[in-house]
């Protein structure tokens, strides 16, 4: 059968944050797996980016292995979509440096995402590297000539900087880079067990690698409608976190759960049990698939090394074009 031509190339990545939770799954990984085969995907472990907000590198390797084990478990196929560490492809650093000459600090200071980050993280001073974060991101995307960038609205200003840098480079030297298209995507968000954003630092996650008992124990603490104290009390599913989970993981039973909640016939304990069952059923195959990587982390490192060799060869090809266009190293 003739293979479908990919619609374009996408670079997507994450900082190495360790084991993935359901928020990561719903917000990104599920989409990455869906796009596999439609686009040509490169998956980056953004370990340089991680340094912009945390200088402690002691956990980077462990966190990388844990995270990639989950990527593989949910269905990222490294033979189709290379997985690689940013720090192992030195061309990222080289292109970042060259790009940093093509943008002013005033432009970077106007970046609204940076302003929000400074406010949220309560930062008094930011480093030179943090200010240049979108320039590194431009290098990440353009090194692989990514021509589509799926982003949520909050990340769109970064892609605009990538587009500006690509245009500036092409106009100054030669047409080397595509001008990547911003593909505004609504990333589904799954709240954590306390109703806030699901995040490991808040201790409100369900992990993809959690076993059934752990999922049940965690869900017992999940926030529900505070007015529904016992079975028989009518509930409001629209304000209940467990109902949000049911909508994602137990769609077939949603109408019944909704009417049972509203009438009071369904109690929260039973509802949480149903929810735990379906979440566990969804993630059980992932847990099983990640087991060999947990037992043999060297397999993950092998996959990374293969991905890195493939990424490096694409990156070096681009850098040769860049150096030639800029007449660097000419003899
Ligand atoms: S019955 Fe279910 S949906 Fe209704 S409030 Fe309780 S946990 Fe939430």
Question: Can you walk through the features of this model?
Answer:
This protein is mainly alpha-helical and 331 residues long. It folds into two domains: 9-191 and 297-326, HUPs (Rossmann fold, 3-Layer(aba) Sandwich); 210-290, Tyrosyl-Transfer RNA Synthetase, CATH 1.10.240. Helix content is 53%, strand content 7%. It is built from 14 helices and five strands. The protein has helices spanning 22-35, 47-50, 60-74, 91-99, 105-109, 112-120, 128-131, 133-143, 156-172, 212-220, 241-249, 254-263, 268-295, 297-326; strands at 9-14, 40-45, 83-85, 148-151, 181-184. It has a three-stranded parallel beta sheet with strand order 1-2-3. Helix 1 links the parallel strand 1 (9-14) and strand 2 (40-45). The chain starts with 8 loop residues before the first strand and ends in a 5-residue tail after the last helix. The structure holds iron/sulfur cluster (SF4). Iron/sulfur cluster binds at residues 224-225, 228, 235, 237, 240, 242-243, 257, 261, 266, 268, 271-272. Iron/sulfur cluster (SF4) binds next to helix 11, helix 12 and helix 13.
**Bound ligands:** iron/sulfur cluster
Q: How would you classify the helix and strand content by structural class?
A: mainly alpha
Q: Estimate the helix proportion, in percent.
A: 40-55%
CATH topology of the largest domain: Rossmann fold
Integer-rounded radius of gyration: 22 Å
Which CATH top level class of the largest domain fits? Alpha Beta
Order of helices and strands: EHEHHEHHHHHEHEHHHHH
**Reported CATH architecture of the largest domain:** 3-Layer(aba) Sandwich
Task: Provide the residue-averaged pLDDT.
Answer: 93
Strand content: 5-15%
Say how many strands there are.
5
Separation, N- and C-terminal Cα atoms:
48 Å
**If helices are DSSP runs of H or I spanning 4 or more residues, what is the number of helices?**
14
List segments where confidence is low: pLDDT < 50 over at least 5 consecutive residues: none
What sort of overall outline do the alpha carbons produce when their principal axes are compared? elongated
How do the strands of the widest beta sheet line up side by side?
Answer: 1-2-3
Q: What is the total domain count? A: 2
The major beta sheet can be summarized as:
3 strands, parallel
CATH homologous superfamily heading of the largest domain: HUPs
């Amino acid at each position: 059968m003739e293979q479908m031509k990919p619609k374009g190339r996408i670079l997507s990545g994450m900082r190495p944050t360790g084991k993935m939770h359901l928020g990561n799954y719903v917000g990104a990984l599920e989409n990455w797996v869906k796009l596999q085969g439609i686009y040509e995907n490169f998956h980056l472990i953004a370990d340089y980016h991680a340094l912009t907000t945390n200088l402690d590198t002691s956990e980077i390797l462990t966190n990388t292995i844990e995270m990639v084990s989950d990527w593989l478990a949910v269905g990222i196929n490294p033979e189709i979509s290379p997985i690689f560490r940013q720090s192992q492809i030195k061309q990222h650093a080289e292109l970042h440096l060259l790009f940093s000459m093509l943008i002013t600090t005033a432009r970077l200071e106007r970046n609204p995402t940076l302003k929000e980050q400074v406010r949220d993280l309560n930062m008094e001073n930011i480093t030179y590297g943090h200010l240049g974060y979108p320039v590194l991101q431009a290098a990440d995307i353009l090194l692989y000539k990514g021509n589509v960038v799926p982003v949520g609205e909050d990340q769109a200003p970064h892609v605009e900087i990538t587009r500006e840098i690509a245009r500036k480079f092409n106009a100054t030297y030669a047409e080397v880079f595509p001008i990547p298209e911003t593909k505004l995507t609504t990333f589904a968000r799954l709240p954590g067990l306390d109703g806030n954003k699901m995040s490991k630092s808040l201790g409100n996650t369900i992990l993809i690698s959690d076993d059934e008992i752990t999922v049940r124990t965690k869900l017992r603490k999940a926030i529900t409608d505070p007015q529904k104290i016992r079975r028989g009390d009518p509930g409001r599913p629209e304000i209940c976190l467990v109902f949000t989970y049911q909508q994602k993981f137990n769609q077939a039973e949603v109408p019944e759960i909704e009417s049972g909640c509203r009438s009071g016939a369904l109690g929260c304990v039973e509802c949480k049990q149903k929810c735990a069952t379906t979440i566990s059923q969804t993630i059980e195959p992932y847990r099983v698939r990640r087991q060999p990587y947990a037992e043999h982390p060297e397999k993950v490192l092998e996959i990374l090394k293969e991905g890195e060799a493939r990424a490096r060869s694409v990156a070096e090809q681009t850098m040769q074009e860049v150096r030639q266009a800029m007449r660097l190293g000419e003899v």
